[in-house]
Amino acid sequence: MSVERILVIDDEPPIRDVVCVMLQAAGYRTVQASSGADGMAILKRDPDFQLVLSDLMMPHLDGTGLLENIRRDGLEMPVVMVTAVHDISVALAAIRNGAYDYLLKPFEREQLLAVVRRALEAHRLRVENLLYQSNLESLVDSRTRQLRETITQLEASYDVTLEALGDALDLKDAETEGHSKRVTAYTIEIGRALGLAPESIRSLARGAFLHDIGKMAIPDAILLKPERLTTEETRLMREHSYLGYRMLRKIPYLVDAADIVFSHQERWDGSGYPRGLKGTDIPIGARVFAIADTLDAITSDRPYRPARSMEEARDEIQQWSGRQFDPEIVKVFLSMPPSTWEELRAQIRDEQTYVSYTERMARPSPYNVKPPKDDSKWKIEQIDAALQKLPGWRLDGRCIERELSFGNFLLAIKFINRLAEVAEQEGHHPNVRLLYNRVILELTTHDAEGLTDKDFRMAERINALLQQSD
To answer: How far is residue 386's CA from residue 384's CA, in Å, rounded to a whole number?
Structure first.
């Protein structure tokens, strides 16, 4: 174990010598300086001291000036002031200026050693704490990287599972073979052109790929019937949207996709099914999908008619703008070159997989289009009313924010782990910052560029989670 080094500064040589003898007898190493200026010169050459013991009243650079210089230079060792002035205000001023403690002259050996031991122990604990925090931050960074890698691997395996589900549906409904892959590719491309965030496009792609998953629950006699369906059979067929939603809604990472599956047959004018949603009440993902789905339906062969041209498909989508389709998204679609869709069809004919073409989501879009307005975003009066019922939360720009404090780092981590489970259930992605035992939470719906029902539902879940922790 290394011996602590102490710098003793005093303009009176006898006092310096006596103090150094006392400290050396107790096992410390000492270095002497005759003034504050000399002391600073020594510290600049060799800052590896665990303690500075300095007289307060010295010519040229006194103890107060020495303290200011030490702190200005970022030196972290404690400083103990020695003074012959028996005035409590002098001692308090030294403490306010950054001194660890002070000694009144004359002092006994035991007084000196007691103050020195306390100061050195405080310094040791401070250094250990800084080292612990540094190691902890490194550990948190490492664990965060590992967690992100694990999530990436899980998402990759999820996408392989999705592809298997889509292939199973194609096998059952051979009439639309490849439809799920094509419509997903189209949907991704429109989402990118709209400027949606990669996170939103990922949910959009999953919803598009699984939009007809509910047909697996429709009897083959109806699904594969070549003749026109009866009224009752049509009613049963229309249930596939809800059946697909029921299949997916309990899978945490498919919560947003389930909403698209549920709403993919809705129409802008409210004439769709199953809920008759109208306008921006329809999730934006379902509005994007509707155009991609129609594009593929028109340009693909069907038993009852041959495929029509891409130009005919564009014309028909334009004709139904404002009735079946969101007019703002139609404008974006029509601004995209027709060759885009031919290139995507060719890639899929070359057996490109769902996993590989969803990689397009991470690439920057060649289009510069603002996302359409989403009326699901809450207005300020809605937000104010909701925050009155949510203790601890406050509005911060486009987010609602809450700061939590826990007894220690481990309790904070335990809370974050439980929060992750709730976030998966809600299909939400809160912004979380960890500052040792403090956790700062921010909630916002990124694709809406503001606050929506989802954020306040998540805030309620978090408050309930905290009450359970209590």
So the answer is: 5
Q: Which residue has the tokens 């931050």?
A: 137
Closest by CA position to 374, among listed 287, 293, 458, 289:
287
The 10 Å Cβ neighbour count of residue 133 is 12
Chain centroid to CA 161: 26
Query: Which residues, including other chains, have CB under 8 Å from residue 394's CB and lie 6 or more apart?
Result: 387, 400, 401, 402
In the numeric block, which tokens belong to residue 340?
């885009």
pLDDT at 319: 95
Q: What is the structure's pLDDT at 150?
A: 62
| DSSP codes of every residue in 349-374 | HTT--HHHHGGGGGSPPS---PPPP-
Task: Indicate the CATH number for domain 5-130.
Answer: 3.40.50.2300
Distances (CA, A) of 226 to 175, 220, 302: 11, 11, 11
Q: What is the number of helices (H) and of strands (E) in the chain?
A: 19, 9
pLDDT on residue 367: 58
What is the b/e burial string over 247-273, where b = at least 16 CB atoms within 10 angstroms of the residue's CB? bbbeeebbbbbbbbbbbbbbbbeeebe
279-324 pLDDT, tens digit per residue, is 988 989 999 999 999 999 899 876 667 889 999 999 999 999 999 9
* Region of residue 78 (left: phi > 0; alpha: psi -120 to 50; beta: else): beta
Burial label, 74 (beta-carbon count in 10 A; 0-12, 13-18, 19+):
exposed
Q: Which CATH superfamily is domain 173-362 in?
A: Hypothetical protein af1432 (1.10.3210.10)
Q: Which residue numbers in the chain have pLDDT < 50?
A: 1, 355, 361-362, 371-372, 375
Topology of domain 380-469 in CATH is: Gyrase A; domain 2 (3.30.1360)
For residues 447 and 361, the answer to whether their CB atoms sit within 8 Å is: no
Q: β-pairing, 438-443 with 431-435?
A: antiparallel
Q: Is 350 exposed, middle or buried (0-12, 13-18, 19+ CB in 10 A)?
A: exposed
The answer to whether 5-130 and 173-362 have equal CATH topology is: no
On whether the CB atoms of residues 361 and 199 are closer than 8 A, the answer is no
pLDDT at residue number 173: 56
pLDDT score recorded for residue 355: 47
- Give the burial class of 310: count Cβ atoms within 10 A of its Cβ; 0-12 exposed, 13-18 middle, 19 or more buried: middle
pLDDT at position 318 is: 94
Q: Is the peptide bond before 14 cis (omega within 30 degrees of 0)?
A: no
Instruction: Write down the pLDDT at residue 176.
Output: 53
* Residue bearing tokens 């602590």: 4
What pLDDT was estimated at residue 292?
94
Domain locations in the chain as residue ranges: 5-130, 173-362, 380-469
Provide the token pair at 65: 């000036």
Whose structure tokens read 């590896």? 48
Answer whether 25's CB lies under 8 Å from 14's CB: no
